[in-house]
Records
---
Amino acid sequence: MTDEEVKMNGTQFEGKEVYVKDVFTEIAGYYDEMNEIMSLRMIQGWHRYMMKLAGDIRGKKCIDIGTGTGEIAFLVKENAGPEGKVIGLDITPEMLKYADMKMRENGRPEVEFVEGDALDLQFPEGSFHLVTSGYMLRNVNDVQKAIDEMYRVLDHGGKVVVAEMATPDNRFIRYFYNLYMKNRVQKIGRKYDKGEKIDGKMPAYDWLVNSIKGFPHGEVMAEKFRKAGFKDVKAHSKNFGAVNIYEGTKE
């Protein structure tokens, strides 16, 4: 893996925060369906693995950062039980609207959904026993700051579990992965985003696919968690490296 293949802070550009917020506002209504397609229908298994890494969280206070439509937050709540409290935080109100709708209309577990910025969490230090996040880090302006904030709001003895997509390192696997992303994901995405540029930049699913390319993963990303202060950091590669799940503890 060359330096060119791994952007240490992901893809950054002027106006990224506004653009990303506008992207997720646009795709909120079909976000869950496209996540299933992008993950080869494996996303629920990834989330169950995250809960396995989280351990016993019954009765604990937890936060899912970049919660989107709340899928991980709902699963955390199921594991935290009636006495547990779960907050799902996202910067995009439209995504939270769909999360809240699923909770009210589909009988999902009760989660408190709040609007907020992953780079500036409005919670005191040590507020949560578990911090989770899924597929958010490549969408922020400062990956390290987002991880630092996760560490800050986590209580001593608490755990972080984060999932993020990646381009497989194996050249053979990467070839077929890229074909799938280009010929399947982006083409299906066109049905929804119509190929229309957002804020004068690329269409929504061009961004979601291209943001994965070269994004730091594996030990490169694990080192960012260690830099934030996390101990016992591990990077778990799933589905030939298409997703990496990171865990760490705050002593």
---
Amino acid sequence: MVPPDVPTRDAARSLDAAEVERLRADFPILSRKIGDRDLIYLDSGATSQKPRCVLEAEQQYYEQFNAAVHRGAHSLAVEATDHFEDARAAVAGFVGASPDELVWTSNATEAINLVAYAFSNASAGRGGAAAEPFRLGPGDEIVVTEQEHHANLIPWQELALRTGATLTYIPVAADGALRMDLAPQVIGERTRVVAFTHVSNVLGTITDVARLVELARAAGAVTVLDACQSVPHLPVDVKALDVDFMAFSGHKMLGPTGIGALYGRRELLNALPPFLTGGSMITTVTMERAEFLEAPNRFEAGTQRIAQAVSLAAAVGYLSEVGMDRIAAWEEKLGARLAAGIEPLDGVRLLGPAGVPRIGTAAFDVDGVHPHDVGQFLDAAGVAVRVGHHCAQPLHRALGVNASTRASTYLYNTEQDVDAMLSALADVRGFFGVNA
């Protein structure tokens, strides 16, 4: 049962069980077995499964349109370029951005590194007067949170080392809740960057983006949002969020691996010094110097992820047709069912604060049983979950554990999937002989 103080979405807007069963037919992998058990896939937080239309879009591109984009005047090259840029427009529109505000990257990790290294280049004197907002040095501060995935922590640690800036962070409470009461003390007049996750990849909890943006704006700081766990699961509008930069990955939102995206405000992208350099991102090159195109092309050196972009556009089309508000409402139901089923289990601790908004993700610790053993036991029951520190060691350390087991749902999961995982989980401690 959902605690009464948890905000819930309009149940009438949710998917229903019959619709989810119809959607499942679009995902070929969900029909396979693990041993003699039907696959129950509860690891979409790591990577999502792909509907048939996404698989077909990539195949069709290679069969019908394959050519280098933005190069050549022959028919295939023109058609490939059109498909590539149409994909950019589709993905940008999905998050409320303009096409020229969306840069293709290999994944969200690269997108965040792009911003961090562009800050480095600005701090080294590149970019002229326009790059002044990105120059860091001793006395400046970069603020993150203790909830961050390593992809939104290590690039900022490295930037601090390169520039002499100081890295500081907003801590979490003992239950993993972000200490928003301390945020005004951490974000101040010396803050130049505030980088934070929209949704915790471990806990599934949703950050108060508006409050952190408000504090960053007051300090004159640039905001960078890790939206890997929000864009696939929640309606996201970058203009409403009012962030300066936002990173997300295709493979977590029904798309292929090998592609991600960086949103950036147009004026900021055009002021950022490039990160990768080479062909296709320049206007003029002499033996002494080069001049660069405006965004997004200035950040897209070399041959791009063309087929992946096209298939990611198919993925956002699929998600849009289903409806992100309806997906979010369904996952909220599944997440509440997970939490309600985990909490009463003896020796099993549900990680994260109670009574707060979260997506359909639950991480837990089983007393006396290593998460890897938990994961293997569940796998034997056909249930795929994630085990380990989930690239968030500082958060686990704050929670008093080295690792955890995480179940993460998506639009193709059913209540029966959740119940099967809970049934298997109830048997874990007995199987390993650690019942009290």
---
Amino acid sequence: MTAATRRQIPQFGHRLTLTGLALPALILMVAVNAYPLFFAIIQSVHGGSLIAPGPFVGLENFAEVLTGQSFWRATWFTLVFTACGVFGSWALGFALALQLKPNFPGRDAFKVLLLLPWIVPIVVTAMSWNWLLAARDSVLPNIARALGMGNVMFLGNPTLAMVTVCVFKVWISYPFMMMMCAAALESVESNLYEASAIDGAGKWQQFRHIILPVTARSTYISWILMAVFCVNDFPTIYLLTRGGPLEATTSLIVLAYRTTFLDFLPGIGLAIAFLMTAVMITLSVVLLRQIQKSSLQ
């Protein structure tokens, strides 16, 4: 037995021990998630109810979803909602992270205050926003009338409801982006700023050629996470508008919920969910490739 072989045996035993310790948890995770996933796949190709699978219909549920106007309307709003949630919260979070430098007075106190929209439970935040703008006599509609803008129904008008829901998503999501950006900015060495300043680079040049490239990997990761959060975000929309008015704020996850649990069509609802999952996987793969490219640079 060679020396190299003797070194490999302890390493193999160490890996085997770690695998044995992790195996029960892995088996439990597979057991908990495998059955619901398998049952969902079965339901998506059947035309039954929440209790019984019903007759086999193949891909008819997917065809019905793809040919329905509700699906494409929900897809459009989901894209708008996700884009606003990802880039809006990133822009705001990045701007705040840039301002909260180590020499910023009261930095820790401001960080705690800025984290409140993310820390407070979504139900409390949604109720607060409903109190501010949901009814005709709420605070913001009263201010709008006082300014001569008439009766502005923020959640009663389809366009205003879409804008309100997107702004609400940015409001509750920017603290997460701010923390991600702040952590990424910590990796930017101070001597890079000093060297660029000596070369005559201004704030914009430093932001464009130093900060953005160095934080690109963290940015792409935060975009992936926030995109997943937005697409799967049910309470933000449902607590504010329940998908209305006139289905203007009905996202794919809300449409899947309505179809499955209110219309009692689980096959079609699960088909919507699986199509939504396929889109998310595609988007994640694209962004992961961008992460790999940024790592090679």
